[in-house]
C-alpha cells in the first residue's frame, strides 16, 4: 500500500503505522522443544542447549523439564563434582549404568554398584590439583579430562571423570555411562 506521506510503497511510516515491521523471536527455551506432558515421568531427552533434561513432576503434580544434573527422581540423583566435594573423605555408594533415555527407578536398573571415597584431589594431563573438588579451579573446559582421586571398592576399577559445567556430572565413562547416588530426600 502506498504511503500516505510520501507515496512510496515501502516507507518507515507505513511500517510503524500499520504494524508491518516483522520481528523474529529467537528460541530461548533451553529444554527440549516437545512438551514434558507428552512423556512419562523420568524420560530423558536432549534439549535445545544440547544438554540432557528429564521429565519431573513439580509440587502441583505438573510435568516439567528439569536439567538432568539437578534432578532427583525415584530416590536417585546424578553423581556430580559438588556431591563429591560435599563428601570428601566419606565412602559414597555409586550406582552406574549404560546411558539410557529413562531415569532409573530401582536397583536392578543399574549395571554396577561400587563404593568411592573421594580424596578431594584431581588430575589433568598428569598434573595433580590439590583440593580441586573444593575449589574446582581450574574449571573443566570442553575436551578436558579431569580424573577424581580417591579409593574405589567394588567390581569396577576405573577412575571417575568430570564433565564440564553446568552440571559437572561424574562417571567412569562420560561418553556412555551415567552414575547416580541415592538421594537424601
Q: What's the β-strand tally?
A: 11
How much strand?
A: 25-35%
Number of domains: 2
Biggest beta sheet summary: 8 strands, antiparallel
Rounded mean pLDDT is: 88
Number of separate helices: 3
What characteristic shape results from the CA principal axes?
A: globular
Rg (CA only): 24 Å
Low-pLDDT stretches are none
Summary of the model, kept short:
It is built from 3 helices and 11 strands, in the order αββββαβββαββββ. The chain has 185 residues and is mainly beta.
Q: Could you explain how this protein is built, in words?
A:
- The structure is a single chain.
- 9% of the residues lie in helices and 32% in strands.
- It has 2 domains: 36-70, no CATH class; 76-182, no CATH class.
- The protein has 185 residues and is mainly beta.
- It has helices at 12-17, 81-86, 132-135; strands at residues 44-46, 52-57, 63-67, 76-78, 92-98, 112-124, 127-129, 146-154, 160-162, 170-171, 177-182.
Amino acid at each position: 500500500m502506498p504511503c500516505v506521506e510520501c507515496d512510496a510503497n515501502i516507507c518507515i511510516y507505513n511500517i510503524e503505522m500499520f504494524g508491518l515491521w516483522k520481528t523474529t523471536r529467537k528460541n530461548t527455551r533451553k529444554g527440549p522443544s516437545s512438551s514434558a506432558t507428552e512423556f512419562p515421568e523420568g524420560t530423558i531427552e536432549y534439549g535445545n542447549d544440547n544438554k540432557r533434561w528429564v521429565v519431573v513432576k513439580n509440587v502441583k503434580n505438573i510435568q516439567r523439564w528439569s536439567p538432568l544434573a539437578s534432578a532427583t527422581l525415584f530416590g536417585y540423583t546424578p553423581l556430580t563434582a559438588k556431591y563429591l566435594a560435599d563428601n570428601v573423605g566419606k565412602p559414597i555408594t555409586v550406582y552406574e549404568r549404560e546411558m539410557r533415555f529413562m531415569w532409573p527407578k530401582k536397583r536392578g536398573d543399574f549395571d554396577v554398584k561400587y563404593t568411592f571415597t573421594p580424596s578431594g584431589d584431581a588430575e589433568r594431563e598428569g598434573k595433580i590439583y590439590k583440593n580441586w573438588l573444593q575449589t574446582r579451579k581450574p574449571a573443566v573446559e570442553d575436551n578436558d579430562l579431569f580424573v577424581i582421586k580417591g579409593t574405589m571398592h567394588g567390581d569396577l576399577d576405573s577412575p571417575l571423570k568430570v564433565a564440564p559445567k553446568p552440571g559437572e556430572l561424574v562417571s567412569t565413562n562420560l561418553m556412555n555411562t551415567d552414575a547416580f547416588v541415592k538421594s537424601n530426600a
